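Morning!

As promised:
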Amino acid sequence: MITRAKTANWTITLLIAAGSLIVLFPLYMTVMIAVKSPAQIAESVLAIPAEWHWSNFAEAVRMTNFGHAFKNSFIVTLLAVVLTILTNSFVGYAVARNIKKRFFKFLYYYFVSALFVPFPIIMLPIVKEMAYFNLNNHTGLIVLYVVYGIAFNMFLYVGYLRSLPTELDEAAMIDGASVWQTFWKVIFPLLGPINATVGILTCIWAWNDFLLPLIILSKPDMATLPLAQYIFQSRFSVSYNYAFASYLMALLPMVLVYLVAQRWIINGVVQGAVK
Amino acid sequence: MKKNARIFYMMVIPAFVMFFGFHTFPVLLGIFYSFTDWNGFAQNYDFVGFKNYLNVFKDESIYAAYGFTFQFAILTTVIVNVVSLTVAMGLNARIKFKNFFRGIYFLPNVLSLLIVGYIFNYIFSNMLPNFFENIQMKDWAFNILGTTEWAWLGIVIVTVWQATAFNIILYLAGLQTIPTDMYEASSIDGASKWKEFWHITFPMIAPFFTINMVLSMKNFLMAFDQIVALTSGGPAKSTMSISYLIYTDGFSGGSFAYQSANSVIYFVVIVIISIVQLKYLQRREMNL
């Protein structure tokens, strides 16, 4: 027993390592194709090339108008994350602190039950509605991320706020602070961990989402990265090296964010799901 | 204190109005359109009662889409959960470089499914056929995405590759809640690994199993991005998922109202499945 507890299990380590190759293989292949010339790809897709064609990336940037799509994705994601945290948190606070009142209890179940509504039933009408209000653009997209996010974030914020004692609010209010002041000065600073979870989930969603930009954005130059890839794919047939260079560039920002904030992201996603 | 109560209402009313306007209202609008003959563009439309619904029930292509979507979702849910629970148990064992491997296995979760689909599209259409060609297995040297018999397999593989990441992390979180002395007690009793799994591990992670099953199933029933990237529903509509059918026919096929009726039926189906699944799995959790 005691010896078993100390030594590492190498058989399982090897199996896990072998399995991780399945995860890494498509990504390795993407990098390899992205840095080769068509002749090198024809020779061997997976071999490490003698000469690396970095110019593929410059060409892919030019062909897919990458900078523009990147800027669109960046703005939409950033604003969706910031506005979601700033608004959904106080909605969650109001509901959590009044959950015994009928209206707030109703609101809680109203938001959470929306999680059962499949998107296809909204898909067709929302396009007409957004066009009617001239919201078939980035603003509309951001609004939808922030509003649709409430359904799940309500869950997270109310769950978290239950662990914060109401004495905190009461003490602040006795000192003469209003509800707003209490929230921003006392409660919001304590929401750090759950804000991080909400922010991470919103970021992954908004950055990678394809369906909402596809149906909401009315002009090609508004396209976010996944949508830009789709438009590009369906209009041009390009050599694989340029296509893969552009895939790699579209994936890379999230990979970099993940490398830096891996622990946070994994914890955030687990917190989000377990609640 | 009266004033405070008013502020609390002011905090939630805008959210309620916005949510109703952008979520509930379109649902109602969709139900409304499903009783009309609107094509999505024309100025006018008429009410046709339940005609769209009756036609949906007679529509072969809709049955085919339901058939594909459900077979795909059930099969993929099973594979994803078996694979991710196995990997999670491996990661939870006494292995070296645990955090490093955990980091790798979770990576697909942060990647765009559409772009992952495009990358796999190349694997299926170019790399694998070339590979089989080179090793003289010419019978295997074809693009599976181009055949009605095997295109679904490509969709399953991409989905499994991407979706296991999330499930692994969740199962791992579940496994870490099991106190190690439970295993020590059972190994003193001489229980086999197989028994140990079914009598200790599985009951202890039952809540995580429930979450994973329900979320996987719901996500896979909505399959869209991977269909777009791999097959566009083809060949011969053999991989047409319900979401993709509603999208293509609803917007460009001129059957906006008809697909609205389809989406209302789909809504009802999903709600029933979610409730049944939750009830059933939670009852099992209690019995375990």
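Chain A touches chain B through 89 residues (CB under 8 Å).

Hope this helps with the figure draft.
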